[in-house]
Design brief:
Blueprint lengths: L3 E3 L2 E3 L12 H13 L2 E5 L6 H12 L7 E5 L9 H8 L10 H9 L4 E6 L5 H14 L3 E7 L8 E5 L10 H13 L10 H10 L4 H9 L6 H13 L11 H14 L3 H10 L8 H8 L9 H10 L4 E3 L6 E3 L2 H14 L2 H22 L5 H10 L1 H13 L3 H10 L1 H6 L3 H13 L7 H13 L3 H21 L8 H7 L2 H9 L10 H21 L3 H18 L3 H16 L3 H17 L3 H17 L3 H18 L11 H14 L1 H12 L3 H8 L10
Parallel strand pairs: 3-6, 3-7, 4-5, 5-6
Antiparallel strand pairs: 1-2, 8-9
Length: about 700
């Protein structure tokens, strides 16, 4: 889910899939509570519409939260220890920081009013309470809107119970059923004649929104009076004389169960097997994981279409990026059915094996023309990758856990999930002895790659400081080069450790890892040459790096070749050429979602544009750079007052532009949304509303 910018307001709220119906009083109450309370929790049973109500309320509240409105979806989270990672990822904080991640999240969100929506908290309730309490204590302008079947139990929490929809003939339940029925059967119209039947259906389903939506879809196969008869007979079987009305949670389960009975046997089997997925799936994944027995892989696409028509499955996207998902309550029903069939363990293993294969494919093709595709695909499959790793760890398969976590080195390292990768690698390594086989070697190497080494940060900062002094003494044309940015951007703190503290013999023997190590070595050589002001030699090594990457059609490391060619161009007094190479690097880094790399290239563009005499543009880029480093959650570079590079350029540009214009230009850059900021850096005119 990409971050969006709307009218200067940032966030990640998804568009609403269909029309929101009713709940005017609840929306007004939530709006009022968010103005006075720090934590508002919507409680109620499953299927009552808590998540949808929270999303609608968050959309309505966006104007009051210039710091962003951020949705954190927790229904797919299995490991409470990854809750903070999930918050960081949802709010676009890159997980590469020396500080505790929760502290980095607090600093990332601080500064202006922010709304955080924690959706479906009940299965990680204790950790949600702990994280929410710390966030609220640390961020004065934060508001949290949570949804949960149980209260979080945090001091100051304000509860709002979400009840089923009102049941009168002209109330919200009838309006919702009518809206969804008209969408399912365009010829359906609410009339005075059928209104009592619709009201009776709504009453039978206790006004529970999910039950109403499932029932409305049934009109594709039943006329309204038959739908009501079917519900009556189904419910009568379950109602005892001593209990004239079903409990609401039983009502929902009965409605889902009735939908289940109306499915064909193969549709039911697919529904059950699909319940092993987390965060959705595509057709290929469903075919691999869910085939077997009476269910052929060739039948699955048609069965998915049928389940989609019945609203059991939801379809997202078009063309080659179509994905499917199930609501949490519907998936839970399928999971129970799968357990009853005795297939749960076997299907979970197929799920694990499929995503092991996906990881291997991604690793083998990472250094090639499919790099951007793999970055996007694995980010979309993030929840399923987590689930596959958890399956390995839970099933006590240490070699498989090592292989999977190690094979994903490129995902942890290059796609912004270093903190999570480090956690999983450490858990896998704890369960295996030293000196294991190739899986152990791969995991150790991957762990080194994503582990931040504080000494390297200090060394990189010393290099920057030394170059500032050298430039002053020799009156070089460029006052300071962002070598700290260069170090961090190629993961100098981890990449240099891998190269300087380990030999090539310790590189992984796998397809992509060994090649990547060779390219990484060239990048670090270019960095070290630049730090010595050996710019011609730096350019030569960087050109070798670019050529090696071009052979493979690779983007991520090729961008570091562009970066160091640009860096050398600045050092040699060729700022125009430096700008062109830096823009190439920035384009690639943005495409593969490398936010740290983008921040480092923004630093480089500050230097290049200042060297061309574009002081105002350089000051705007300095503001952009500060924002990008802040979003990355990194120490020093996220705090310009502690960074040699930013401190030096602030002094130079302030002297050139004057205090007032300098501050205005930096603020203009810092306040741009991400896409608008990148557009400006690439030479376009920035649109404050984004691209």
């Amino acid at each position: 889910m990409a971050a969006s910018v709307q009218g200067g307001r940032i966030g990640n709220l998804p568009a609403e899939a269909n029309a929101f119906v009713g709940r005017r009083l609840e929306l007004a109450e939530i709006a009022g509570l968010l103005g006075t309370e720090r934590l508002v929790t919507l409680t109620g049973p499953g299927g009552v519409g808590k998540s949808r109500l929270a999303l609608r309320a968050a959309h309505a509240a966006k104007a009051g939260f210039p710091g962003g409105t951020w949705l954190v979806e927790l229904s797919e989270l299995r490991d409470p220890d990854l809750l903070t990672n999930t918050v960081a990822q949802a709010t676009r904080l890159t997980e590469q920081t020396l500080r505790p991640l929760l502290q980095a999240v607090c600093e990332h969100l601080a500064g202006s009013p922010v709304l955080l929506v924690l959706d479906t908290c009940e299965h990680v309730l204790d950790e949600c309470a702990r994280v929410a309490q710390e966030l609220l204590a640390s961020i004065a302008e934060l508001r949290i809107l949570a949804t949960s079947r149980q209260p979080l139990g945090v001091p100051g929490e304000r509860l709002l119970t979400v009840a089923p929809l009102p049941l009168g003939e002209r109330d919200d339940a009838v309006a919702l059923f009518t809206t969804r029925a008209s969408a399912a059967v365009p010829s359906f119209v609410l009339t005075d004649a059928n209104r009592p039947h619709v009201a009776a259906v709504c009453a039978r389903l206790d006004g529970i929104p999910l039950a109403l939506e499932l029932a409305a879809v049934r009109l594709r196969g039943f006329p309204l009076h038959r739908l009501l008869e079917g519900l009556d007979s189904r419910f009568d079987l379950l109602v005892s004389p001593a209990r004239p009305r079903l409990a609401r949670h039983q009502t929902l389960r009965t409605a889902i169960g009735w939908s289940h009975e109306l499915c064909t046997p193969l549709e039911r089997l697919l529904w059950a097997r699909l319940s092993v997925f987390a965060g959705g799936w595509d057709v290929e994944a469903a075919e691999f994981v869910c085939h077997g027995g009476p269910l052929d892989a060739e039948e699955i696409l048609a069965l998915l279409a049928s389940l989609t028509e019945k609203s059991i499955v939801t379809r997202d996207g078009e063309g080659p990026v179509v994905r499917y998902r199930m609501l949490d309550t519907v998936r839970s029903f399928g999971a129970e059915w799968l357990t009853g069939l005795g297939e749960a363990e076997a299907v979970r293993r197929r799920h694990r094996d499929y995503f092991r294969w996906i990881a291997r494919q991604g690793e083998a093709e990472w250094l090639g023309p499919g790099q951007r595709m793999w970055a996007e695909r694995l980010t979309a499959e993030h929840a399923n990758l987590r689930l596959a790793i958890e399956e390995c760890l839970t099933a006590r398969e240490p070699e498989t856990a090592l292989e999977l976590t190690g094979t994903l080195w490129f995902f942890w390292f290059a796609c912004g999930f270093a903190e999570e990768g480090r956690t999983y690698l450490e858990r896998a390594l704890r369960h295996t002895p030293e000196g294991g086989g190739p899986e152990h070697t791969l995991a150790v190497w991957a762990h080194r790659l994503v582990t931040v080494v504080p000494d390297d940060l200090e060394a990189a900062e010393s290099v920057s400081a030394a170059y500032v002094w050298l430039a002053e003494e020799r009156r070089l044309p460029v006052p300071a080069l962002p070598l700290t940015g260069a170090s961090l951007a190629v993961r100098g703190e981890s990449a240099r450790s891998a190269v300087l503290y380990g030999s090539v013999r310790q590189a992984p023997a796998g397809d992509g890892g060994a090649e990547f190590f060779q390219l990484l070595t060239l990048a670090v050589q270019a960095y070290l040459l630049a730090s010595q002001a050996a710019f011609e030699r730096c350019a030569a090594v960087a050109e070798r790096l670019r050529a090696e990457c071009a052979k493979r059609g690779e983007l991520w490391m090729r961008a570091w070749g562009d970066f160091f060619v640009s860096l050398a161009g600045i050092g040699l007094g060729h700022p125009d050429e430096a700008v062109l190479s830096a823009r190439e690097a920035l384009t690639a880094k943005w495409r593969v979602h490398d936010r740290i790399g983008a921040a480092a290239v923004a630093d480089l563009l500050v230097v290049a544009q200042a060297s061309r005499g574009e002081e105002e543009l350089a000051a705007r880029l300095l503001g952009i750079s500060r924002r990008l480093w802040h979003a990355a959650g990194l120490p020093q570079l996220g705090r310009p007052d502690l960074t040699v590079f930013h401190r030096e350029f602030e002094r130079r540009l302030r002297a050139s532009l004057g205090d007032v214009r300098f501050e205005e230009a930096v603020r203009e850059g810092r306040e741009l949304g991400p896409d608008a900021a990148i557009a400006l850096a690439l030479g376009g005119v920035a649109d404050p509303n984004g691209l």
